[in-house]
């Protein structure tokens, strides 16, 4: 039912951007997108943020007036970069606090709307998410395996999306990479630098870009295009073929 799917998708999109704007500073950070949550942490002086006022620290006005984050490589001053780092630190704290309790972040009214929407999407997609989560959960409970997410979505909306689809438990925030600015292949390179060349990487996806990037780095690619692919993946993990 394509029209129904579009309607549900638009409702979820609205929820994602609402969460990103309300709780994850997307209004401030949209032009200051990072590949990874810790990319600006070196500018953070570690000060206590419990009484810090993000609304009045002057960050947004400075960012919008000077186009500080345009791709020309112009960077703000030390003070401004510190305020940027504070925002990413707070996002990380919120993600880690609410990754298994998104309803607590949304509040009662939005929580009910969210649960209703999630149920409708699961019904329409024949439990696609539940099936995908089975495999992700097996991987994340293994002592020698991790889930890493590479997405073309900007980092902040991607984090909102992960939270709203209850994938926060499967993906530690440090394992989420946004390819918006640098492309998936460059993200793969960063991941290989981080985890080393001695580990086995398996790329799971449905797009040409990640398949080509996987091929370039000699990583096996597991294509997901139907429910049977998800079930096969789950079986391979359960039987420890993978």
TrEMBL record:
Catalytic activity: O-phospho-L-tyrosyl-[protein] + H2O = L-tyrosyl-[protein] + phosphate
Main localization, broad class: nucleus
Subcellular compartments: Nucleus
Binding sites annotated in the UniProt record for Mg(2+): 206
A Pfam family this chain is assigned to: Hydrolase
UniProt keyword terms in alphabetical order: Activator, Developmental protein, DNA damage, DNA repair, Hydrolase, Magnesium, Metal-binding, Nucleus, Protein phosphatase, Transcription, Transcription regulation
Keyword Cell division set for record: no
Molecular function terms from GO: metal ion binding; protein tyrosine phosphatase activity
Protein name as it appears in the record: Eyes absent homolog
InterPro entries: EYA, EYA_dom, EYA_dom_metazoan, EYA_dom_sf
Cofactor binding, per record: Binds 1 Mg(2+) ion per subunit.
Homology family: Belongs to the HAD-like hydrolase superfamily. EYA family.
């Amino acid at each position: 039912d394509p029209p129904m799917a579009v309607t549900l998708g638009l409702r979820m999109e609205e929820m994602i951007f609402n969460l990103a704007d309300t709780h994850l500073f997307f209004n401030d950070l949209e032009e200051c997108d990072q590949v990874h949550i810790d990319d600006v942490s070196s500018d953070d002086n570690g000060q206590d943020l419990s009484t810090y006022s993000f609304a009045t620290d002057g960050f947004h006005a400075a960012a919008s007036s000077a186009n500080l984050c345009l791709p020309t490589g112009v960077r703000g001053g030390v003070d401004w970069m510190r305020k940027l780092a504070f925002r990413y630190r707070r996002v990380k704290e919120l993600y880690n606090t609410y990754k298994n309790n998104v309803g607590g972040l949304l509040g009662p009214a939005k929580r009910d709307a969210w649960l209703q929407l999630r149920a409708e999407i699961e019904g329409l997609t024949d439990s696609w998410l539940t099936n995908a989560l089975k495999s992700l959960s097996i991987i994340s409970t293994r002592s020698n395996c991790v889930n890493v997410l590479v997405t073309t979505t900007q980092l902040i909306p991607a984090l909102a999306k992960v939270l709203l689809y209850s994938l926060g438990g499967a993906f530690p925030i440090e394992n989420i990479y946004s390819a918006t600015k640098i492309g998936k292949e460059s993200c793969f390179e960063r991941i290989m630098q981080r985890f080393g060349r001695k580990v086995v990487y398996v790329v799971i996806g449905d797009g040409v870009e990640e398949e080509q990037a996987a091929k370039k780095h000699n990583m096996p690619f597991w294509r997901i295009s139907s429910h049977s692919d998800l079930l096969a993946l789950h079986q391979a993990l359960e039987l420890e073929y993978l």
